[in-house]
Design goal:
The chain has 160 residues and is mainly alpha-helical. The chain is built from 9 helices and no strands. Helix 7 crosses helix 9. The radius of gyration is 23 Å and the shape is elongated.
């Protein structure tokens, strides 16, 4: 008989997290590994012989998933915003401040603004890329601009 996933989560979650964190060295990745491991268990069709067999299987799956994350192209090549900013060159300090402010916006506005202003895509092209309606792209651009204006206005007022 296969124990309920919830029972195993309560029993092994912390243990699997420790193993995953040890390999990934990143909280979010370790949490993803644990979640993916239990999803894998929940959808796995095979029956297990003993509780020890289940525990060993969960650990092995977690280790493999953690190693897959650390080997992935994305994991090997990602860098934080500060490191990325150091690689960029800006013509003026204002353009650097603007870029930094754009990068701090919520993702749904940041992506649309970046594609429109930095990559020179039209609203129709952005709509196709992101699988959004053109009106949704225009709304996100408008709201993103409003957030930028508000944020930059606050920074400008602080300088006075």
């Amino acid at each position: 008989m296969k124990p309920a996933t919830q029972v195993l989560i309560e029993r092994y979650q912390k243990h699997l997290y420790a193993i995953a964190f040890n390999i990934c060295r990143n909280q979010q990745d370790a949490e993803d590994v644990v979640q993916d491991t239990f999803i894998h268990y929940h959808t796995y069709k095979k029956e297990f012989d003993t509780e020890e067999h289940i525990r060993a299987w969960l650990i092995r799956v977690a280790i493999n998933k953690a190693k897959n994350i650390t080997r992935s192209f994305w994991h090997r090549n990602k860098c934080n915003l500060e490191e990325y900013m150091e690689t960029l060159t800006f013509e003026t300090p204002e353009s650097e401040t603007l870029f930094d402010t754009v990068m701090k916006l919520p993702e749904k506005y940041r992506i649309v603004l970046h594609l429109f202003y930095y990559e020179d895509y039209t609203t129709q092209e952005i709509s196709d890329i992101l699988h959004l309606s053109v009106s949704n792209v225009k709304t996100r651009l408008s709201r993103g601009r409003a957030l930028l204006k508000e944020t930059l206005k606050e920074e400008w007022n602080d300088d006075e």
